[in-house]
Specification:
77 residues, elongated, mainly alpha, single chain
């Protein structure tokens, strides 16, 4: 009986910890998104290097993301 009780305690603890991760509202409020979209928040400031890295990724993965660019994924554009 002691082992089952201990296992139940572990399951209840894990369930309560995981339930705490589910927030009913978004973490970033709509009025805070304006500040997060600021260009200073980007990880890289070199637009040309970012464009090159994105092109290499597109060619290697043979697919395109939601970047707004047109063309196929074969790298021949």
């Amino acid at each position: 009986m002691g082992c089952q009780r201990r296992a139940l305690a572990v399951v209840v603890t894990l369930a309560s910890l995981l339930a705490g991760c589910a927030a009913p509202e978004p973490w970033v409020k709509p009025y805070e998104r304006e500040r997060l979209a600021d260009p200073i928040m980007r990880l890289s400031r070199d637009a040309l290097a970012d464009k090159h890295r994105e092109h290499i990724y597109d060619v290697r993965e043979s697919g395109r993301g939601a970047t707004g660019v047109q063309g196929g994924g074969c790298g021949c554009n």
